[in-house]
Amino acid sequence: MKAILLLMCFLVFSGDATAQQPKDSSWDGLRPLLGKWIAEGGGQPGLASAGGFSFDFDLQERVLVRRNYSEYPATGGKPASRHDDLMVIYQEPDKRMRAVYFDNEGHVIYYSVVLSEDKRTITLLSDPVATAPRFRFIYNLLKDNSLSMEFDIAPPGKPDSFSKYVEGKARRQ
User: What is the pLDDT of residues 138-155, one digit of tens each?
Assistant: First the structure.
């Protein structure tokens, strides 16, 4: 009997406390990314790609998770391929946004996340590492409710000398 009472108290106090918390407004600038998207693009690798991604909150809005895939057709003797990645955006204790990115090629990239003043551009800028390339990923929210995307790379030793690597556009699914 005591165990049942303890369990009921635990459920009442743990369940209601999180359900009544207001939404964290510091995520507001990223909320337009929520949902499923269909994308197409191309660039330096020389291949057009098609794919999609989603942005969803997890852990009771403690993190924003992006799942992405791109499919590349077979060309010039290269077989068709698929790129998959996962990114988790989170807040530091001081509310600065950060992200960590993982992909099926073994990359792990840490980003700072910056929202423009007009809240239309979201920039992810990788931490500079002297012996490695630096990456910048830019989402632009367009007036037709679509996104333009750009992925730039700066060579090792030149952390601010970015060149466009790939670009694309996405629309809601």
Answer: 999 999 999 999 999 999
Average pLDDT over residues 110-120: 96
Q: What is the Cα–Cα distance from 134 to 16, expressed in whole angstroms?
A: 44
Residue 133 banded pLDDT, cuts 50, 70, 90: very high
In percent, the amount of the chain with pLDDT more than 90 equals 69
User: Long-range contacts of range 165-168, CB-CB < 8 Å, 24 or more positions apart?
Assistant: 165/43, 165/44, 166/41, 166/42, 166/43, 166/44, 166/45, 166/49, 167/41, 167/42, 167/43, 168/39, 168/40, 168/41, 168/42, 168/49
Residues in the chain: 173
pLDDT digits (tens, 9 = 90+) for 17-55: 444 455 778 899 999 999 999 998 876 655 678 899 999
| Terminal Cα distance for the chain, rounded | 51
Query: For residues 151, 157, 158 and 160, what is the CA-based torsion angle, rounded to 10 degrees?
Result: 60
**What's the 3-state SS for 81-114?**
EEEEEEEEEEECCCCCEEEEEEECCCCEEEEEEE
Domains of the chain: 24-172 (2.40.128.20)
